[in-house]
Amino acid sequence: MHRARLSVRHFRKFGWNPVVLKVAAKYCARESEELLLETLPKGVSIHSVVAFPVRISELIGIRDLALRAYPFILFKGAQIIRRCEIDLVYFSTTLFYSMTLGRIWKSLFGTPFVIDMQDPWGTEYRSTRWEVPPDVKRKLARALHGALEPWTMRRVDGVVAVSEDYTRVLQKRYAWLSDKPSLVLPFGVDEKDFAVLRSQPQDNPFFNPRDGHVHGVYVGAAGPAMAHALKIVFSAFRKGLETNYDLFSRIRLHFIGTDYAPRSLTKKSVEPLAQELGLSAYVNEHTLRIPYFQSLQMLKDADFFVIPGSDDPQYTASKVFTYIMLRKPLLAVFHENSSVVDIIRSTGGGSIVTFDSISTPEAHLKETFRVWRGILERLPFSTTLDRHAFEPYTAFNTTKRQCELFDQILERRQAVEP
Per the confidence metrics, is the pTM higher than 0.85? Predict the structure, then answer.
C-alpha cells in the first residue's frame, strides 16, 4: 500500500479528493503498524471491510487476502461509488484478484478504473525462476490469473506501472491498451516519513551501530532471482578479505525482510550463498518482514547500503529512492537494463555495477571489488545528491503525474459522452 499511502497526502493539491477502501487490519495476516497513520493527512475518508479469517479460509487452501475479502470489498465499493459519486477507481496493490472488481463496478456504474502494476500479474517469470514446485494449487492459481488479467484489462481505462517493460509487455499482450492512457512511475519518497522517524526513533534489534564494525544494510526481498547479484557482491567481499583484510574484516552485512512468506514457510536465500564463500561470520539474514519505520531505522543506523538487483531486467526497486534520499554510500548491483541503473547514475545516489543476462559473477569481480574498496576507504561520507534530478521521484511529483493521468481519462470520457 506504499504508493497509495504516499499519494493520499497530495491528491487534494491536484484537485482529487481521495476516498480509501481497505481491509480492516485485524483481518490481514500481518501485523499492523499504527505509526503509519501519523503520515496521513487529516480528514481523509477511509472505509474498512471485514474478511474471512485465515484460520477458516485456509481449511480450503485459501490465504490470499483479496479472495478472503472479495465479496465485502465488492459490496462496500459499490455502495461508496453510488453514494459518493466516485469519478474514478484506482487500484494500487499487488492483490491481483481485487483488480477484477474494476470491471464489475464499471459495468454497474460506468465508473472508469486505473490499475497500478507494481508487479507482473499474468507472467511466467516468477514461476520459472523461483524454483517453486508446480503443485496443483499453484497451477490452478496461474491458470486463474492468466484468465483474469485479460478479462480485466479488456475494460481498463488506464495503466500505471513501475517499469516501462511492464507497460510494453501489457501493450504487446493486449493491443487495445496502446490506445489507453498509461504512465511509467516508480514509487516516490516523502521527507515526512523521516520526520516521523526523528520524532519517534525505533528499536534496532539487529546490530549495534556503535560496536566498532562497519554495517552494511539491505531491507527487502531477496530469493533466487537475486542470487546472481549476491554472488557478485560476496565474491568481491571474499577477495577483499584475501587482499585487504584489515579493511574488509570490519564489515557486517545485514539482509532484513528477505522472504515475504508466512513465518512458518520462510526460507533463507542469502546466508546459504554467503556460507558457500566462507562469509558466514560476516553476513546475517532475517527473513521476516519488519515494520516500515523500523526498516527506516535500520537504514538510518547503517554505515552504507548494499542493494542486490534481480536477474529480471524488468525489475525496478522503488525502495532505492529511500536509500538515495538518506545520502549514505550505496553499492548497487543490477541488471544493465533495469531502470534503477539510470536512476542512480542521474541522481548521483551511489555506486552501481551492472551485469547482463549471460555474464558470470566472476566477470564482475574486479569492478565490484574496486568500487567497494573505494567506498570503505572513504567512510564516513555523504553522497552528492543531484536535487534537480531527484525531484521527479518525490511523492509530491509522482502524485502530480498520477492526477494528470486521472484528468486525462476523465477528459477522454467526457469527450465521447453525448
Answer: yes
